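User: Design a sequence. Structure:
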């Protein structure tokens, strides 16, 4: 399929948009929370489930490991690391819990998060800290961020001689910012502190090169920007950390013919499940590869940024950050203060628009996500609806 320029007429993007089928009553601008899978992914997942339901023994015992290894190899090529460094899991949450339950803290040690981390990630580390007697600390990032070096400085200046691990998003959830992950990893390595990058919003949206990033752990979901099946994700573990990683659910590790021999094998069988999402991952990667991450990201960014600019025009708020430098396919725009939930509900009930309204640092934002099935009309409709509700 031909790849148009990001700002080309929406009609030129129709062939790409047709790879998805979104419910016709809905204007879907929340790919960042739950990305609908493409038709090819839905087909592959259904096919796997049909075959599984017709002959579970054959699929689970004889076909499953090969299928999962094929998905893993495909994903490893896509995120540029060796397949030996990855395990497939259900989502970033599962991956983050795995790191939190395996990481060894002594009482008094510290783990450092930023104030832009996803709420559930904070809960995971609060519990891990409580259990180990470790302290969870927070680095406040400059907002608006302005200069990437100031973001790195905010993190390094919150590091103490007790800090053992830094947990930091690649792309933040409440504010959609692309953080300078590579600089953050380098700064932590210089201080011999482990880094876990929380990356579910980066996969598919940014060209990932995990070996070059050289973090200790990378946690991700593939059901966001990669448009993989809901319930697909991965955990990357650097070779220097692999011996200490254990699955949350202990089971056989792998079935016949062998007992687990590597750290990865322990994740192959964690109890009986259908594995459809993980087996149906390759068509998602095929689609993103066929357009290219930069073209995909460029189109999503063009639409989301256009939507935010329309909102800024009537709201009078300045852009929250320089769009080109800090945002990709998700862009935030500020709204007049107020409760987020009633506004989100009104957008759905009165306009059938799905979009998150976010409260952060006492301010209210709309976070616009655009993928290949979105058009200018979707973000124009959002801007008009918001103007009627709060303008
Ligand atoms: C930054 C970040 N981390 C982690 C998660 C958790 O992802 P999942 O629910 O797919 O496990 C999310 C979900 O939106 C997120 O935005």
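Assistant: Done.
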């Amino acid at each position: 399929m031909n790849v148009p320029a990001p700002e080309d007429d929406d009609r030129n993007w129709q062939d790409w948009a047709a790879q998805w089928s979104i419910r016709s009553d809905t204007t879907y601008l929340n790919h960042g929370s739950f990305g609908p899978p493409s038709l090819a992914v839905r087909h592959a997942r259904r096919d796997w489930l049909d075959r599984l339901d017709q002959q579970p023994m054959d699929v689970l015992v004889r076909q499953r490991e090969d299928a999962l290894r094929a998905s893993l190899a495909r994903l490893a090529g896509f995120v540029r690391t060796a397949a030996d460094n990855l395990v497939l899991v259900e989502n970033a949450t599962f991956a983050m819990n795995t790191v939190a339950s395996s990481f060894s803290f002594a009482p008094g040690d510290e783990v450092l998060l930023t104030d832009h981390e996803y709420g559930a990630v904070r809960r995971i580390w609060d519990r891990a800290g409580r259990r180990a007697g470790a302290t969870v600390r927070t680095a406040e990032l400059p907002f608006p961020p302005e200069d990437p070096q100031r973001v790195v400085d905010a993190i390094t200046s919150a590091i103490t001689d007790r800090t053992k691990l830094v947990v930091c998003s690649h792309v933040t959830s409440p504010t959609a910012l692309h953080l300078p992950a590579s600089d953050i990893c380098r700064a932590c390595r210089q201080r011999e502190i482990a880094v876990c990058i929380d990356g579910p919003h980066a996969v598919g949206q940014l060209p990932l090169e995990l070996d070059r990033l050289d973090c200790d752990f990378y946690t991700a979901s593939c059901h966001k920007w990669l448009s993989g099946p809901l319930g697909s994700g991965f955990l990357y573990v650097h070779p220097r950390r692999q011996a200490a990683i254990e699955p949350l659910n202990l089971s056989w590790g792998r079935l016949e013919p062998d007992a687990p021999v590597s750290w990865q094998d322990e994740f192959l069988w964690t109890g009986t499940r259908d594995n459809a999402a993980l087996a149906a991952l390759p068509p998602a990667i095929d689609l993103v590869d066929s357009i290219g991450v930069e073209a995909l990201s460029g189109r999503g960014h063009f639409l989301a940024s256009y939507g935010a600019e329309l909102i800024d025009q009537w709201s009078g708020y300045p852009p929250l950050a320089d769009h080109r430098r800090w945002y990709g396919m998700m862009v935030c725009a500020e709204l007049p203060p107020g409760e987020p939930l009633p506004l989100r509900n009104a957008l759905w009930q009165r306009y059938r628009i799905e979009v998150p309204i976010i409260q952060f640092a006492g301010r209210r934002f709309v976070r616009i996500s655009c993928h290949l099935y979105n058009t200018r009309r979707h973000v124009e409709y959002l801007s008009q609806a918001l103007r009627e509700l709060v303008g």
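The chain has a mean pLDDT of 97. The longest strand covers residues 163-169.
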